[in-house]
Amino acid sequence: MSTHKPKIALVLTGGGARAAYQVGVLAAIAEWYPRVHTSPFTIYSGTSAGAINAVSLASYASSFRLGVKKLSWLWHRLDTSRIFASQPLGLLSHLASQTGQRFQSRYQPTSPFGLLNNRPLRELLNQTINFNKLNYQLLSGHLHGLSVTASNYQTGQSVSFFQGDASISPWERARAVGRRSQLSTEHLLASSAIPFVFPASRIGHEFYGDGAIHQIAPLRPAIKMGAERILILDLTTGIRTAGNIDPSAPGLAMLGGHLMNAIFADTLSADLENLQRMNQIHLALNDAQRHQLGLRKVNVLHLRPSVPFEPVAKRFYRHMPFAARALLRLLGINASQDATFASYLLFEPAYLRQLIDIGYQDAQNHRSQILSLLIE
């Protein structure tokens, strides 16, 4: 009997507030394991809000249920004010500062532009994530690799900052690199900095934004870190059918939602198709050829929401602070026209709990498929 334990990766895609769905899925999976049990995942790869979830879970790899419990506790207590400055004074002060800096002398350095001030998110991450625990998980063998992907605004590259076992080598492909790093709050802020919405984050001498912008191969970091099985928790909800398409001309709300979907959704399907082709090539080769080409079969389970989030966001949109809604309304973004944009920024408890419940139920409905991937 083989004693080889496959390396199982958890890939968490980006999606702002939608990432609450991932918490629901993980809460269901955690119930299927004993109270004191290591995580079934030894590799974590996250982008944008998914990166925050990935780092939080990886720091508790030695106790899966505890890690999920702490992550769930955090998401159940989130509100908009803990993500960005959402009160009138805070919003106006930030906008005034941003406007003033555009009129400064060109010799005076300016801060990155962002419609919203995400300083509360920085404070929240500093309070809730202990990055020192990652080193312990790596040394104890409970964690093999962790990747956080961000987009380099200067070079146009997708950069996957990874912390992991010494056997993992940095990689460089077309417009994408893997860089060994000591992960920090700055990496998470960079990965989750939605363009125009949140300011870019500076790492070293370069500025980085949302990891989904240039990420042409979302599965690459997990595969490069040695994944043999991958569970993907996607946050896209599929293509709208003819019956629910709005016939009116697209306004800023619809264009903003379309842009958000383009950032977070367009590359995963192509990467999955490419992986399927590689698996087919793997089956057609003998062992010597596989070894020579460095190919291995990677089993994947792709889980995505069973229901669209837009109707849920529309129902809870008025829970967002009035000043934040007023700002979006001034920009022409209104949930009554198109709730896609709102579904990414609505960090309000009732909405987040609803997404967590949807994720939990989806995981229960796919229990046999998930367990067949996780259990040998």
From TrEMBL:
PROSITE patterns reported in the protein's UniProt record: PNPLA
Keywords for this protein: Hydrolase, Lipid degradation, Lipid metabolism
Motif (GXSXG): 46-50
Active site per the UniProt annotation: 48 (nucleophile), 210 (proton acceptor)
Residue numbers covered by motif DGA/G: 210-212
Keyword Hydrolase belongs to the record: yes
Domain PNPLA: start-end pairs: 10-223
The name this protein goes by in its record: Patatin-like phospholipase family protein
UniProt feature coiled coil, ranges: none
Organism per entry: Salinivibrio costicola
Annotated Pfam families: Patatin
UniProt entry tagged with the keyword rRNA processing: no
